Amino acid sequence: MPFVNRAECEIISPSYYSVDLGLGEGGVLYTEQSAMSSVRHLWFMLNDASRPSVITSTPTNVMYPCGYVAVDAVRRQITGYNSEQMDWIIHSTSIAAAASGFHGYFCARFDKPFVVVGVCKNYTLLPADIEEAEGSLVSAFARFDVPEGQCSLQVDVRVRVSFISMAQACRNLDGEIPDGTSLEETARPTRTQWAEKLDRITIEGAASDNDLSTFYTVVYHSLQYPYEQHEWDGRPV
């Protein structure tokens, strides 16, 4: 999706990202997002012309692994898993046996009721009474209504992952980023943790923008791993 003016449409920081996607044709899609180590928190502003909806897609089209997705309109959540592991993509032959047991589970919870839900498999929309699917290319979506008398709708989405189960992902969500948690409450500890790491660094002497970009890219990647090997409640993976 093209940006009219990228510099004016985006705000980027270590703990916060926002973008106005400028849909055109009267459509509005503005999003903000933040994250913690195993949490993604998103906020959308949409209008009727943008057909307010959110879609989740489990396996990617790289290795076509098996995935699963389910919609629960009562709990306003979508759950599922993806069995595609990045190491498997890079070294598919040497670790195939070990990677075959991998599952990355997720629980995505919304603060607005679902008006329409659907599940797709192999790019095909399944019958309306089907609320779950398993296969190599599966996805689920939820649509929302803009309240009468209002010009836009705000939708808050919180996503938590687990290496144990979908139920554990939901427990992690309830414990770490429960209902009512604001985007700022998610961003604040992330901002504090990044500041603590970056405040240790002082760069002296002349450095080009390319040098600084390379250096901070290396710093960023060095802090990505090792990832956590336990769940929110302390259960080991």
UniProtKB/TrEMBL annotation:
Transmembrane segments: none annotated. One of its GO terms (cellular component) is nucleus. Residues 168-235 form the Glycosyl hydrolase family domain. One of its GO terms (biological process) is glycoprotein catabolic process. InterPro entries: GH-type_carb-bd (IPR014718), GH92_N (IPR041371), Glyco_hydro_92 (IPR012939), PNGase (IPR050883). One of its GO terms (molecular function) is peptide-N4-(N-acetyl-beta-glucosaminyl)asparagine amidase activity. Residues 8-161 form the Glycosyl hydrolase family 92 N-terminal domain. PANTHER family: PEPTIDE N-GLYCANASE PNGASE -RELATED, PUTATIVE-RELATED. This is Uncharacterized protein.
